[in-house]
Amino acid sequence: MTQAAQPSTAVVLLHGLCSTPDELLSVNGPLRQIGCTVVPLQIAGYSFDADHPEAPAQRFEHWIGAVHDCVRQLRQNHQRVVLVGISAGAGLALSAAMDPATPVDGLVLMSTTLRYDGWGIPPWHFLLPLALYTPLGRLWQYREQPPYGVKNERIRAWIARELENRRVSRAGSATLGVSYLRENDRLLRRLRRRLGQVVCPQILALHAEEDEVASPDNLRLLAVGLSSAPVSLKTVTVRNSFHMISIDNDRQQVVRETVDFVRSLTASPPCP
Fold first, then answer.
1. Which of 7, 9, 89, 268 has a 20 to 30 Å separation from 131 between CA atoms?
2. pLDDT digits (tens, 9 = 90+) for 43-100
3. Nearest to 23 by CA among 209, 195, 162, 198
4. Which pTM value belongs to this model?
């Protein structure tokens, strides 16, 4: 009997901070349908752990290392590896793509958050470092509030019920501990300084025009930061969603753009 051929492309899904792979469930099935191996990566100290909901964050270097380990393993049996990340997962994907020893063939970045400047960010946000880097942080944690990154009112109501009953939903955890926010802040500070070090031939960045967490100006920051990097960047703005574009009103367009991008990579030579 002839052994079935291995899929030539693997896709690693990187959800947002202290959340679960459910955030990217919408693209999981369609990517499998076009023949990709899909790995919804869960990372200790980054992902939400229902068995240990109060567990502190690991250092952001551990997060990046977990992605590198996954890429190296997938490269043993696949010609191409693509990272798909949303929100903090997009920053994690960019950070992982800085190491030429662990090459990736493409990045899909959803709701890239290099700067928290959306219309829903409270005016006191500039004080956040006091909570992250001083003892004051022991007295505080961030709690998710409506609209939960979602414009669709029906989905928003469902998320609210999930957060009340399970402490986590497809939009993320009900609360974020200071250690997670601090490590993500450290990752973003490093990322903004080193965007020019990203090594990836093709990048697709999808962003909502009405993103309440990270304004579309993040696309400009991304383009400027990558201008000296050996990458080709395509940006797409969706018009009827908030931050969580993978589950909101434009999710079908997001899925279509993602699948078309990954499929197009098969026409290009893989990374050496």
1. 89
2. 999 998 877 777 889 999 999 999 999 999 999 999 999 999 999 999 999 999 999 9
3. 162
4. 0.92
